[in-house]
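Case study B.
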Amino acid sequence: MSEMQPLVRSGVAGQPGTPAEATGPVAGRPRHRDAGGKPRSLAGDAWLDLRRSKVFWTAAGLVAVILLMAAWPALFTSADPRECLLARKHAGPSGGAFFGYDFQGCDVFAKTVYGARASIVVGVCGTLIAGGIGLVIGLAAGFHGGWLDAVLSRFIDIVLGIPFLLAAIVLAKRLTADPASDGVLAVTCTLGLLGWTTAARVMRSAVISAKNQDYVAAARMLGAGPMRLMTRHVLPNSIGPFVVVLTLLLGVNIAGEATLSYLGIGLKNDAISWGIAIAEAGPYARAAAAPLVWPSVFLAATVLAFIMLGDAIRDAFDPKLR
Amino acid sequence: MTDIKAEVDALPGLDPRAPLLQVADLHVEFRTRDGVAKAVNGVNFWLHPGETLAILGESGCGKSVTAQAIMGILDTPPGHVTRGQVLYRGVDLLRLPEKKRRRVRANRIAMIFQDALSALNPVYPIGFQLGELFRKHRGMSRHDAKRRSIELLDQVRIPAARDRINDYPHQFSGGMRQRVMIAMALALDPEVLIADEPTTALDVTVQAQIMSLLAELQRQRNMGLVLITHDMGVVADVADRISVMYAGRVVEEAPVYDIYARPAHPYTRALLESIPRLDRKGRQLNAISGLPPALTELPPGCSFGPRCGYARDVCRREAPPAYQIAPHRVASCHFIREVLGV
Amino acid sequence: MFRYVVRRLLQMVLTFFGATFVVYALMFANQDDPLQALAGERPLTDSQRTALTERYHLDDSFLQQYWYYVKGLLTGDFGTSLTGRPIGSMLADAWPVTIRLTLLAIVIAAAVAISAGVLSAIRRGGVFDNATTLLTLIVLALPIVVLAPLAQLIFGIQLGWFPATATKDATLWQLLLPALVLGTLVVATELRVTRSSVADNLRADYVRTARAKGLSAKRVIGVHVLRNSLIPVITLIGVDIGVLMSGAIVTEGVFNIPGVGFNLFRGIRTEDGPLVVGFVSILVIVFLVVNLIVDLLYAVLDPRIRYE
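Model:
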C-alpha cells in the first residue's frame, strides 16, 4: 500500500456491517470514536460533519418553514386566496396582503402561502413514487445481475431516452383527461413515473459496488441467504447515495410541478400552485411585477433548500472529502 | 538544444566531493482537520554513486513521504517540510527556488512508483510521455525525441519497441509497464534513482526480472539507488545498506549482511523473526503485537516502546538518540547491547 | 471498438422503438374515441370521421397503427397537424431558429462552465470556488419557469438591456438573452462535473509522476490533467444538446421565438394530438442520435475504450 497520506487515524472509518476495526492504544479520544470509545459508523461520522455544516442548517431551516407553510397556511395569513375582488386588480400591498393583488384581485401573499401545499404534496408524493420504483428496480438489477440486470437496464435506457419534459407533456395530457379533477394525482403520477430513472441507476451502481465488497463474500461464506445479504449487508451500505438522489429529486419534482402547471398541463382549475401563479402573472408583468416575482422567489427558495440539503448530506457521506 | 546539465552544474554550492545525496534531520508534517500528523521525524541518510540503499519499513512509517520530500513533490497543503536539509552534492534542494528545483527533477534525481498503471497517464501513448522529457528538458525535436525514446525502450528490454512506441499504458502487461516507468526515469541520465516499492504490485517472477534490470542499469550508469520497500526478501539480494524506518524515524541503519545476521534494534529483530521459515514448519508465526502509532499522537519516548519486548521505563520517558555502534552502523535504542546479545 | 459501436447502435435502435412506442401509446392507446382525441375539442362530421379513420388506419389493430406510424416517421412522413399544415413543413420552418438558439446556448454554457470549473478545482476552497458553488446552486435551483419570465422582465423590459422577444429570423443579438436563460439549464451541472473531474484528476497518481518528471505546473495541468478531466465533460455537453432542445419549450414560449419548442407549446395548448406526437417523436429521435454520437465520441476521446 503506497502511502500518499500518512495514517491519520488507526483503521478506516467502519461502515455498518464491516467487521469491527482493530483498536490500538490511543491517548485521548479522536473524533472518529463516540463517547463510549466505540468506532463510529460512517453514518455517525456523517452526522457529526452535518451538524457542523452551516449549509445544512440553513437548508434545514428553510425546509422546516416551507413544510410549516404547507401544513398550516393559516399560521402565515388570515386571508383567503380564493377571495378575489376584481376591484382590487393589481392593487399595491395593504393590510395583511404584503405582496399586493394580482390581475384577478386575489391576495398574492395568500396565494403564495397556500401554493406551498400543492408543491410540497405533489413534490413529496411524486418523489416517494419515483423513489419506490427506483429502489425496487435498482436493487433488483444490481443485486440479481445477469439477464434481469440487462433487461432492466435497457428499460431504464428507454425511459431515459425520452427527455423528461417531452414525456411529461405526453403523459400528463393523458392522465388529465378528466376535466373535473384538479390534476394532483395526474401530476404526481407523471413525476413519479418519469423521475425514477436516476434513482434506479444510482441504486443499481451502489448495490453492485456493495455486493462486490469482501464483507459480503464473507457473510455469504458464513451461510447468509440472499434476502439476509440484501437487507442486512448490501442495502444499508448502498442507501446513502440513493437518499441523496431522492433529496435532489424532491427539488427537481417541485420545479417540475411548477413547470407543468405553467405549461397548462399540471394542476388545473381552482388549484393554487406557484406554477399557475407564475403563468398567470406573466402576461401582466409590465403592469405588476409582484404577482410574478413573489411566487417565483418562494419556488426558487424551496427548490434551493432541498438541493442544498441533498448536497450537504452527500458531502457528509463522501469518504473522499475526509 | 539547451544543455540542462550545464545549467544544473552551475548551481551554487555544488561540491563534487560531497555525498551524492544526503538527507539531514528531515521533518515532515501533515496538517489536517484531525490534527497534525508527524510523518517524518528526523531522518538521516546518505548515498554515494553506485550504492544501493534500501529503506525498509511498514506502511505508514514515512518512507514514501521521505522520498516525495526529496523529490519535492509533496502535496503542499497539507504536507510541510518543517526542518532539515536535502543535500544533492552539497546543494540544499529545499532552499532552491522552485524553478531550479524543477530542473533537478528527472535530470539529476528521478523516481519510479509502485503502480505503473495509475502512475502513467492513460490517455497519451507512452511515446508521448517519454518524448516530452526530451522535448521539454533538452529541447529536442519530436523526431529526435522519438528516436531516443525507442532506444530507451530497447535498453529496458521491451520487445518490438518501434511498434509499441505508440501504444497506450493499458495495452502493456504489468511488468512491461514498470519497465516503461524505469525508462522514463532514466531518460535524462539522472545520478540518483528513487524506486518507491517498484515491485510490490508485480508477480514474483516478474519482480525478479525488474530487480535484476534495475541492478544492471545501476551498474552500467553508476547511479545511486534508493530502494523503498516493505519486502525483506527483495532487499537481501540488491541492497548494500539498509535503513529501517518506524513511525517516521530511522531506527537502524547498517550494511545488509549485518542487519540480517545481527540486528541491533528490537524492531529489526522482530521483523526478521516474523518472516516465515521453512525449517520452522508447524510452529506459530511470530507476529509483532499491536499496531504502529497514530502519527497524530506519537507516544512520548521511543515510538516503538509500546510494542517492544525489551522496553523499560526509560523507553517511555526518553526517545533514544542514534547511537553509532560501528563505523557504518547506527541504531536508536537504549538497549542495543541486549538486542545484539553482547 | 467495433464491438462497442455495434452495441451502441443496437441499443439505439431498441431505445428508438421503445421510446416512440411509449409516446405513441400514451397519446393514442385505449381511447374511447380516438377520433375525437385526434380532433381535440372540435366536433367531427361523419365524413371527417371516415376520412380520419382511413388516414390513421383506425380500423386496424393498435400495433399495426403503431407500425404505420413508425414507417411514416422513417420515410419522412410526419403526418398532418389539425390545422391542416403538414407537420414536416412546420418542422422545416421551425428548426433553424431552434438550432441557432440551442447552439448559442451550448457554446456559452460550455465556455463558462469549463473555465469556471477548472479554476474552482485548482483553487479548491478558495473564494472563487465558494462563490461559484453558491452561484451554481442558485442557478440549479431556479426552475426555468421562474428564470425565463423573470429574466425577460428584468433584463428585457425593466432594464431594457436586451430585446424582450425574437422572431424567426432573429439575429444572434436578439437570441442572446434567451440563449443565456436556456444555458442556465445546463451550465450548473457542467460546471460541477468539470470541477469534480479536475479535482479528482489533480489527485491522481499520474500527476505525481508528471511532477516528478520536472514538468511545469502549467504543463501538468494544461496537458496532462485537462485531457483526462474533459472526457466526462465533453460527453455531458453532448447530452446537454438534447436536453436543451427539449428545454427550449418554455424558453421559446416566454420569448415568443417561433421554433420547435414554441410550436409544440402551442400544440399542447390547442390539443393538437398529431402535432404533439409528431414533434415529440422527432425530438426523441434527435435526442437519441445525439446521444449515440456522444457515446462514440467518448470512445474516440478515451483510448481505454478504443482499444479494449
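The mean pLDDT of chain B is 88. The remaining cases will be described in the next quarterly update.
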